[in-house]
Amino acid sequence: MPLSQEEIDGCREAFNKFDKDGSGTIDALELKATLNAMGQNPTEEEIFQMISQVDDDNSGEIEFAEFIKVIENQKTTAAKANDETDTIDAFIALGGQPNKTGEISTDKLKEVIKDFGLTIDIEKLISETDTDRSGKVDYSEFKNMMK
């Protein structure tokens, strides 16, 4: 997920702050401190994975361009997690369980869509998803509907 200019400027500031020796690179310890300062709390394994994902020159250190890739990857991962959180919240609101178990009634789903005046062809979505015509939708089916 691309960063805004403001985010890039913040990254530059954080990167320079933690590039203690002015070498233009930061190592694993410096990366962890940098991410902590930006409000993130990655594990040691996540730090290693971040470096290995973007360390194009296999130096074991991250240059600024590689650092930007790390932050973009983190931002994308966070966005995906938030997307699923919204789907889980909707599933729970319709009668499913927080651990993604249980089922929701297709009748209740139709009612909610109608009540909110949404212009979704819910009948079509249900017929494509609830292939066994049980009148119930589990989490994976609900998630597929919401794509």
Description of the molecule:
This protein has a two-stranded antiparallel ribbon with strand order 1-2. A two-stranded antiparallel ribbon has the order 3-4. The chain is built from 7 helices and 4 strands. Helix 1 packs across helix 2 (28-37) and helix 3 crosses helix 4. With 147 residues, it is mainly alpha-helical. The protein starts with a helix and ends with a helix. 61% of the residues lie in helices and 7% in strands. The chain folds into 2 domains: 5-80, Orthogonal Bundle (Recoverin, domain 1); 83-146, EF-hand (Recoverin, domain 1, Orthogonal Bundle), CATH 1.10.238.10.
Largest beta sheet, briefly?
2 strands, antiparallel
Summarize the helix and strand pattern as letters: HEHHEHEHHEH
Give the C-level CATH assignment of the largest domain.
Answer: Mainly Alpha
CATH topology of the largest domain: Recoverin, domain 1
Number of alpha- plus pi-helical segments:
7
Task: Say which CATH homologous superfamily of the largest domain is assigned.
Answer: EF-hand
Helical amount among residues, as a percent range? 55-70%
Secondary-structure arrangement, i.e. CATH architecture of the largest domain: Orthogonal Bundle
Content of β-strand: 5-15%
- Determine the mean pLDDT: 84
Shape: elongated
Distance between the termini: 19 Å
Radius of gyration using CA atoms only: 22 Å
Instruction: Please give the order of strands in the largest beta sheet.
Output: 1-2
GO molecular function: calcium ion binding
Keywords: Calcium, Repeat
Domain EF-hand: 6-41, 42-77, 117-147
Protein name: EF-hand domain-containing protein
